[in-house]
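hiii so um. not sure if this is the right channel but i have a protein structure encoded as tokens and i wanna go backwards to a sequence. like what aa goes where. can anyone help
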């Protein structure tokens, strides 16, 4: 768990499963529009509520309710994004709190119960970085650094496949939790070494073909 010094609350990191679930975005400007792609990638049922909406929202293929926010907009909502002026965000946050629905208030941490961090997405791997809502620009820099340090997509996919296969083996053999990480590390090292040897052999084979 992480500690938010500004608000003196502990934060619990998690990933949300939003497929087929109603997510309400309050706000119709570019900031609200920037949140849509990730929600759509999660197969959420996105509804945008705002008196006016920008063209990026109109063309995004989401449901739009073009009027000011009303409390009933949160009916059946699983998650809310407030990307409106502060006074509207406060109303959204109060209604979400009453309904026990989590809300992300963009660049407005005092009205948020969820902070969205920098995200690195690769095949089968998602990494999220949070600064507890205090320094989103830093989260972005950390995201770029992690993206640079991660191996290429082919290698990550191979790691993921090996980890999935080994997990099934653990279950079948009843391997205790404390023994699993060392075993996985050994398997990935073997995979890395085999790929390194294969890369080293490739120039030799290419040279023989030239002859």
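sure thing!! here u go:
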């Amino acid at each position: 768990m992480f500690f938010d010094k500004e608000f003196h609350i502990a934060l619990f990191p998690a990933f949300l499963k939003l497929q087929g679930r109603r997510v309400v975005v309050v706000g119709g400007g570019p900031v609200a529009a920037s949140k849509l792609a990730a929600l759509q990638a999660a197969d959420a049922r996105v509804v945008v509520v705002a008196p006016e909406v920008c063209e990026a929202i109109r063309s995004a293929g989401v449901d739009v309710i073009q009027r000011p926010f009303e409390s009933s907009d949160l009916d059946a909502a699983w998650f809310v994004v407030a990307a409106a002026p502060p006074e509207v965000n406060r109303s959204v946050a109060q209604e979400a709190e009453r309904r026990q629905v989590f809300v992300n208030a963009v660049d407005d941490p005092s009205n948020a119960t969820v902070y969205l961090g920098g995200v690195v997405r690769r095949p089968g791997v998602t990494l999220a970085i949070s600064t507890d809502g205090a320094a989103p620009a830093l989260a972005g820099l950390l995201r770029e650094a992690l993206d640079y340090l991660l191996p290429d997509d082919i290698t990550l996919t191979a790691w993921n496949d090996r980890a999935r296969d080994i997990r099934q083996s653990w279950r079948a053999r009843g391997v205790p939790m404390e023994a699993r990480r060392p075993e996985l590390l050994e398997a990935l090292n073997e995979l890395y070494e085999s790929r390194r040897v294969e890369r080293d052999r490739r120039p030799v084979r290419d040279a023989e073909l030239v002859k």
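oh and Strands lie at 2-4, 9-11, 22-26, 45-49, 63-65, 79-82, 102-105, 118-122, 125-129.
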